[in-house]
Design brief:
Length: 451
């Protein structure tokens, strides 16, 4: 057996042929260390795998575990899958630990044996949190450790838990691996060991992952490929709502969302979020438009606001909050050119109400409506609701989820419905008493402001 040597950066995982003081990839000093591996001969490395007929493959140990909440079960598919590994990412303080501790409480009530392993908090801290969440007396099992060996020992007990939560993957270290906690090689080694344990013992493992400044899950992108499902929790301290999204799901639907509200006793599920984000909207003011937006598989009513004022600077200001500023610039250019409005002399500020952040083409028409409403200083018709994508030519394009949006608008009693022409033919006939204004071009929008 030959000994092969190579050098690897403990921070970024980059490999180099020889030792260097500074990593050429991430620029860190003193992070390159020698890794010695026993090179296997070609015949040993060759897989001995023989294909199996899927008809004969057993799926024992691959059943759903109900979380005890119908909403969370549906959000994930049908619950937690035995032997699967979930990764939950989110900014610090967003509520990951809170959500997972509450999930433990409801799993415990189902008769399931979950264990919470925290590398970030001590047992008294966990107890305080559990008490605050009203989980006393549920017999929740917890372990405070940062050693992978402890986690693996917990998994190999006689009465092994069915679900474990590891908070967080960046705090766990393996003794077999060099590098500090949270370094690429540690994260990779710890994740691989836990995935292996989950698969062989049929245990569901939920990993918490930190995210970096630009919103990525810290550590190798590989981590997201290794796990079965990735959940992302979004929100910030300025608002009390949190949105949990399924980013990847090997066992159930993706693009599901769960809207949660942070109260003093933890996170509450908002069962019908359709008008949740409209709190305190005043429809009688100019510059406010209602949009039936699509978030995952849900149609949510959101408010889009615009403020158009005379500009006194050398350059007009354009500011967007909650959506991409390029989108605003693009729409203003279209409005300026196609409707011959002199927006070049105006400052324009636009924002999605309720603290939401969205990337949704359906917002376009609502933004145009809000900008025109503020420009003319005339409120939009009360109850008017918009959706549609605006082309560079000023044409309005039909978008995904048209029927879902139309049904939701009708059930909430909104009208007139201002939406792309040709979205569907039946809309006018099927909603008696409700006006639909199908529009083909943003020029048609000026009808809303004619006396
Ligand atoms: P936490 O779950 O610790 O966040 P993460 O694990 O994602 O870092 O959330 C902590 C925040 O939640 C903290 O700012 C306080 C707030 N919080 C409440 O508002 N109510 C509660 O019942 C709890 C437990 C926390
Ligand atoms: Mg936490």
């Amino acid at each position: 057996m030959k000994h092969k040597r190579h050098f690897e950066c403990r921070e970024c995982g980059a490999r180099t042929a020889q030792w260097q003081g500074q990593c050429p990839t991430c620029g860190q000093w003193g992070t390159i260390a020698e890794i010695s591996q026993e090179a296997k001969s070609a015949s040993e490395a060759a897989p001995a795998g023989r294909p199996a007929s899927l008809d004969q493959v057993s799926i024992q140990g691959r059943e759903w575990i109900s979380t005890g909440s119908a909403a969370v079960d549906a959000f994930l598919g049908q619950g937690l899958m035995q032997g699967s590994v979930l990764l939950m990412g989110g900014a610090p303080g967003v509520g990951k630990s809170t959500f997972l501790l509450q999930l433990m409480g409801s799993l415990e009530q189902q008769g399931c044996r979950p264990v919470y392993i925290s590398g970030e908090e001590s047992l008294p801290q966990l107890k305080q949190r559990a008490d605050r969440l009203g989980l006393q007396g549920r017999g929740i099992l917890a372990l405070s450790s940062t050693r992978l060996a402890d986690v693996l020992a917990c998994l190999s007990q006689d009465r092994a838990p069915e679900v474990i939560i590891v908070d967080s993957i960046q705090t766990m270290t393996s003794e077999e691996c060099e590098g500090g906690a949270g370094s690429v090689s540690q994260v990779r080694t710890v994740a691989a060991a836990l995935i292996e344990a989950a698969k062989t013992r049929g245990i569901c493992v939920i990993l918490v992952g930190h995210i970096t400044k630009d919103g990525q899950i810290a550590g190798p992108k590989l981590l997201e490929h290794m796990v079965d499902s990735v959940l992302a929790m979004e929100g910030d301290g300025n608002n009390d709502f949190r949105i949990l999204r399924v980013v990847k799901n090997r066992y159930g639907p993706t693009s599901n969302i769960l809207v949660l509200k942070m109260v003093h006793k933890g996170l509450q599920i908002v069962h019908d979020p359709s008008t949740f984000f409209l709190r305190a909207r005043d429809a009688s003011l100019s510059g406010s438009a209602l949009v039936m937006a699509l978030e995952g598989q849900r149609a949510l009513a959101v408010e889009v606001q615009a403020l158009v004022t005379e500009s006194f600077g050398p350059m007009p200001k354009r500011t967007s909050v909650g959506f991409d500023s390029n989108r605003l610039n693009l729409l203003l250019a279209i409005v300026e050119k196609r409707l011959q409005l002199r927006l070049g002399a105006m400052d324009v500020y636009a924002k999605i109400g309720g603290g939401l952040k969205m990337e949704e083409p359906g917002l376009d028409l609502g933004l145009v409506a809000a900008v025109l409403s503020s420009y003319y200083d005339r409120p939009l018709p009360e109850g008017a609701v918009f959706w549609g994508e605006v082309d560079l030519s000023g044409q309005i394009r039909p978008i995904a989820g048209h029927d879902l949006r139309r049904r939701q608008a009708a059930s909430l009693g909104y009208h007139p419905v201002v939406c792309p022409a040709g979205g569907d033919r039946s809309s006018q006939a099927s909603s008696p008493g409700r006006t639909t204004l199908p529009i083909a071009n943003i020029r048609d929008m000026t009808r809303l402001f004619s006396p």
